[in-house]
Structures are given as C-alpha cells and as structure tokens.
Design brief:
The protein has about 300 residues and is of the alpha+beta class. Helix content is about 30%, strand content about 30%.
Length: about 300
C-alpha cells in the first residue's frame, strides 16, 4: 500500500503557437509545438484513512479548495473510482504563476498520475490524459511531457523526437496575464500570413535535430495581444538576444519569456544580466534550466 508519493510537476514552453480560428463553442483551434523544461513544482501526496481531500501550498494567494487544479484532479479520480480513503496534497510552487508555462496544468497532471498510483486505479497514461482534458486543455500534454505537436484545443497530441538539448533562460516580469482574456482579445481572422509560425517547418527541424532552424522558426501569435499591453516582454526578449540567445519568445499567453542558448557559459552570463544586471528591472523571476524529455514513471 502506497502511503506517500513525492512528485515533480514540470513546466513547459511553447516553441511555436498558432491560432487557426475561433470555434462555435468558443474555444480556439490551435497548432502548437510544446516542450517540457527542467523547472518544476514539488508535490507530496499523503494517503489518509479519513475521507476527503486537503491542500496546502507555499503561496498564500493560491486557493486550497476545489478552485485549485490539484484538488480538481484528485477529486476527478477519487469520485469516479469511489475511493474511500482521503489524500493530503502539499504543493510547493516554483514555476511562475499565471505565466504561460502551464504550472497549474502540470500540477494537476502530476496529481492524476499520483492518485492513480497511490490507490492502484490501473489507468494508462492515455486514459489519464483523456480525463485530464476535463480539467484543462494543457493537462493531457502535461501528462505526456516531452516534445509534442498539440492540435485541436490542445488535446490532440503527436509525440515528436526529443528536441536537441540546449540551455533555456526563463524570465517572468512582475505582471500576471489571464489566458482567457488574451484569447478573447485575439482576432485570429485578422492575423496576417507573416504572423503565423511555420509549424510544419519546425516539426521537420525537430525531426532533423536542427536546433538552429528550430530557433529560427519560433513564433507565437498571442504576442500580438500581450506584448502591446506589457512592453517589458519585448524588452526582455531584446535583452536575451543581445546576450547571445539563438532566439527569444513569449511562452503561451505570457508574460514569461524564454531564450534558447547553445553555449552554457553564454547562458550563465545572460542569466546573471537578467537576474542581477539590467534585466533585474524587467523580470521578477529568472531561472536557467534545460529541456526535459523523460516521461512519467
């Protein structure tokens, strides 16, 4: 009987993000290339004999009830399988919140994995991903992890070969962005051809393990909404490029910016500039990490 599990919930970046159209049901049809990164939240699951779900976090402003995605994930499986025992969830956040890195979705995915294992529910990764779609569009990808093409509303996943390893500099300015608000403001039908990233070209570059072409084909149509409202995003991108990034871009709906670096020393120098130098006026949270391509085990 598993009484305790310690889990890591890894963040993601969008190497490319395109929005094709707004569907009649209000959702947007997207094509994205997603990549897991080494920055993660820590989640501890503790089995209890008393029924119910309790949550604690290291951030005072996060909900600890059914409004937290980790609670929703646990409740989804425990109600479906009539689990009589309870679980306590301890969440320690490191992934920036409301930042375009799928932190909440990754936390939910980790809890789905953990509850499945703790209570012996016997669900496969595909079955967990299918249930995760009820919680959020990014949850199925966060169950799968790695390098992937995501289509539909994000739930249609095609695994890709691991992207060539490099260093990733992550910087989040001192603002939060609502994904829902960004999509509501996006005028997908008014985007020009030049604003749409070459998703197929990026997928082929990944298959060819051509990091330079991957970087060259980075693009995110949501920048057309978020960057004008938060000019510090453009300033962070410019600083990363000046510091030697192959390319730099906003992840998801923002405001987090990431840059790709092939030279570890150059990446460290850029990190120091962003953390302690000129970038410290622009970014509140700064991390230097790697790509992550291992699956849930």
């Amino acid at each position: 009987m598993v009484r305790y599990l310690g889990l890591k919930a890894y963040g993601k970046v969008n190497l490319a993000l395109d929005v094709l159209r707004r569907r009649e049901d209000g959702y947007h049809e997207v094509r994205m290339v997603m990549q897991t990164v080494g920055l993660y939240d820590r989640i501890d699951l503790c089995r209890r004999e008393e029924p119910g779900i309790t949550v604690e976090t290291n951030l005072y402003y996060l909900p600890v009830n059914e409004n937290n995605l980790v609670y929703k994930a646990a409740a989804l499986l425990m109600e479906e399988f009539s689990v009589k025992q309870g679980v306590h969830i301890r969440l320690k956040k490191f992934i920036p919140v409301a930042a375009g890195m799928a932190g909440g979705s990754s936390d939910a995915a980790a809890v789905l994995f953990g509850v499945n294992k703790m209570f012996g529910l016997g669900l496969s990764a595909e079955q967990l991903a299918g249930r995760g779609a009820k919680i959020g569009a990014d949850v199925p990808y966060c169950v799968m992890r790695g390098t992937a093409l995501c289509e539909g509303i994000g739930e249609i996943l095609t695994p890709l070969p691991p992207m060539p390893q490099c260093r990733i500099l992550i910087a989040k300015p001192a603002v939060n962005v609502s994904t829902k608000s960004v999509y509501e403001k996006l005028r997908a039908d008014e985007l020009t051809a030049g604003q749409h990233p070459d998703i197929d070209g990026m997928v082929e570059a990944i298959r060819q393990r051509d990091l330079m072409t991957v970087a060259a084909k980075m693009g995110n149509v949501l920048e057309s909404v978020t960057v004008p409202e938060h000019p510090e995003i453009a300033a962070i991108k410019e600083l990363m490029m000046e510091a030697g990034a192959l390319n730099a871009m906003m992840s998801g709906s923002g405001p987090t910016v990431f840059g790709l670096f092939t030279n570890p020393r150059t990446a460290m120098t850029a990190y120091e500039k962003m953390r302690y130098g000129a970038g410290s006026r622009l970014a509140r949270q700064v991390y230097l990490t790697n790509l992550f391509n291992r699956k849930n085990t």
